[in-house]
């Protein structure tokens, strides 16, 4: 789908930085490079515990920017992202989830010298939503360090006062949910469903490994619930059970015990949705069919009933 390039005008007074401010930014970048050179430990993989995650701390933004040195992320100002999204116009709204609304925008070197011209998706943390600052930080840290063809690319972020935003590459085909369940979408051919399933599996396999195009290439996104996860048969215990209803593994919900098998269960639910074209939870269906996994279990166990899927 062709995008309409935003006409770049000074929508917000002072949005284009003066030569002095640009010079200050260059000096800051040089200072960060020097910090990285003098501190090799900053080059190791980051985790939440490496960063002061207290958003009320006056040092948080500086600590964060120093910690992500070397991750090749752009630090945007709120004013810049207002320009990018036409002041978060509802006409640019792509969707909304537990994290908050996501807006389409466009960045290029008119916004800031050196930026690659490209459409982007700007995710704005809803301060009254289901997720919060720590989930935002987790997504920033994990996607900022990981690069894979089947993981959505994080381009940059904004941390200004209480505002928390993430800037991603724009996925022209939208989400799998939209492709499967929106009434305006034509049914996905089986060949594309297979391509999506294989792509998602590759992304998940990459995330589970110890070493670490705009058509229907599946890309995993939404890492707000991510932690430095367990490897192999190891587990992680959490006291805060959060996740999308229907996708979380039963043992995780009951015990808080998170393993790599928990992800495999969630991936299996997505495979069922791809196979049946049905949502994992749908209260509009008859009682015995509202939970897709429970409905599918007897059919998966009996080859003669598989055609009923």
UniProtKB/TrEMBL annotation:
The keyword Nucleotide-binding applies. Residues 88-309 form the Protein kinase domain. Its EC number is 2.7.11.1. GO terms for molecular function: ATP binding; protein serine/threonine kinase activity. Keywords: ATP-binding, Cell membrane, Kinase, Membrane, Nucleotide-binding, Transferase. It is found in: Cell membrane. Pfam families: PK_Tyr_Ser-Thr. Signal peptide: none annotated. Gene3D superfamilies: Phosphorylase Kinase, domain 1 (3.30.200.20), Transferase(Phosphotransferase) domain 1 (1.10.510.10). InterPro entries: Kinase-like_dom_sf, Plant_Ser_Thr_Prot_Kinase, Prot_kinase_dom, Ser-Thr/Tyr_kinase_cat_dom. It is an enzyme of class 2 (transferase). GO terms for cellular component: plasma membrane. This is non-specific serine/threonine protein kinase. It comes from Prunus yedoensis var. nudiflora.
């Amino acid at each position: 789908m062709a995008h309409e390039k935003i006409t770049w005008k000074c929508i917000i007074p002072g949005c284009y930085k003066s030569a002095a401010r640009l010079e200050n930014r260059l000096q800051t970048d040089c200072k960060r490079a020097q910090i990285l050179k003098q501190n090799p430990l900053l080059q190791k993989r980051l985790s939440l515990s490496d960063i002061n995650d207290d958003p009320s701390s006056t040092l948080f933004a500086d600590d964060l920017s120093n910690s992500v040195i070397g991750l090749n992320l752009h630090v945007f100002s709120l004013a810049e992202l207002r320009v990018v999204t036409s002041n978060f116009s509802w006409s640019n709204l792509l969707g909304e989830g537990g994290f908050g609304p996501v807006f389409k925008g466009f960045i290029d070197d008119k916004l800031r010298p050196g930026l690659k011209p490209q459409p982007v998706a700007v995710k704005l943390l809803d301060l009254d939503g289901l997720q919060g600052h720590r989930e935002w930080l987790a997504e920033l840290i994990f996607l900022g360090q990981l690069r894979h063809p089947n993981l959505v690319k994080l381009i940059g972020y904004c941390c200004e006062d209480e505002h928390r935003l993430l800037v991603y590459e724009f996925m022209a085909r939208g989400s799998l949910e939209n492709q499967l369940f929106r009434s305006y979408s034509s049914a996905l051919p089986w060949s594309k469903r297979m391509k999506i399933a294989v792509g998602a599996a590759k992304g998940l396999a990459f995330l589970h490994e110890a070493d670490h195009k705009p058509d229907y290439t599946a890309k995993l996104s939404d890492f707000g619930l991510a932690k430095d996860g367990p490897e192999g048969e190891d587990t992680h215990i959490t006291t805060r059970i959060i996740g999308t209803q229907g996708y979380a593994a039963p043992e995780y919900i009951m015990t808080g015990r998170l393993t790599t098998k928990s992800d495999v269960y969630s991936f299996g639910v997505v495979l069922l949705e791809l196979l049946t074209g049905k949502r994992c939870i749908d209260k509009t269906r008859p009682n015995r069919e509202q939970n897709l996994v429970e409905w599918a279990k007897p059919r998966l166990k009996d080859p003669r009933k598989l055609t009923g899927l």
